[in-house]
């Protein structure tokens, strides 16, 4: 299976970077699955149903989220309606939506797409390890699913790396998101799982993690700031990753960083 994943889409610049580059992504990678992280797609905070529909109309297969999933109130009922969007798996089970998407492709192949958030330097959530272990009791690579893709939306690099090693051999890929800065450690782990600590973002890199630089500089120079973060409106850059897996085993054959 050929998978392209695009990192945190930040506001309009990120959305345009995605839409403008989808034709070249198709041509170069001939992907079966296109996954995007929409945690910052709506003016930098969360995502709306309208933006989700726009993604799907442009050919996106599935959407994952993160710690801003609840920021736009109108998304809450949509999480129950749409089976192609995953909110964090390790949030309480009685919340709207699900922490995973099970997608059957036109060619009959199946992929499980999972969203998990970290705990270090993040808001309190349930244990990511217990949540993923419970889910994976129902899925086995090469048996009832051809690939398992996990987005780990977390702050600490050490937590992401440990999580990747914990799942090595049990899933096809563990790709980190949330910090908006791409790391240069894309690798296939010993057990056959593709891994990258952070895929980066799709957005305006001329400021601070997709936002205009003035307010972040204020916050750096003094303890408080009366300003509100505003998304950068410059030309966006798309950062993502390409992963190819063996359909029989679900293990990764290739991982390649993308920057367009």
Tell me what portion of residues adopts beta-strand conformation: 15-25%
The ordered string of helix (H) and strand (E) elements is EEHEHEHEEEHEHEEEEHEE
Structural class: alpha/beta
Largest sheet: 6 strands, mixed
From the spread of the alpha carbons, the general shape counts as globular
DSSP summary: helix tally: 6
- How far apart the termini lie comes to 22 Å
Characteristic terms for this protein:
260 residues; alpha/beta; 6-stranded mixed sheet; 24% helix; 25% strand
In short:
The protein has 260 residues and is α/β, with parallel strands linked by helices. 24% of the residues lie in helices and 25% in strands.
Describe this entry's structure for a reader:
- With 260 residues, the protein is of the alpha/beta class.
- It is built from six helices and 14 strands.
- It has helices at 11-29, 49-57, 75-81, 128-136, 157-167, 214-221; strands at residues 2-6, 8-9, 33-37, 62-64, 85-86, 100-104, 110-117, 147-153, 173-177, 187-188, 194-196, 201-202, 239-245, 252-259.
- It has a six-stranded mixed sheet with strand order 5-4-3-1-13-14, covered by helices on one side. Strands 6-7-8-9-11-10 form a six-stranded mixed sheet, covered by helices on one side.
- It is globular, with a radius of gyration of 17 Å.
- The two termini are 22 Å apart.
Topology at a glance:
Elements: E1 2-6, E2 8-9, H1 11-29, E3 33-37, H2 49-57, E4 62-64, H3 75-81, E5 85-86, E6 100-104, E7 110-117, H4 128-136, E8 147-153, H5 157-167, E9 173-177, E10 187-188, E11 194-196, E12 201-202, H6 214-221, E13 239-245, E14 252-259
Parallel strand pairs: 1-3, 2-12, 3-4, 4-5, 7-8, 8-9, 9-11
Antiparallel strand pairs: 1-13, 6-7, 10-11, 13-14
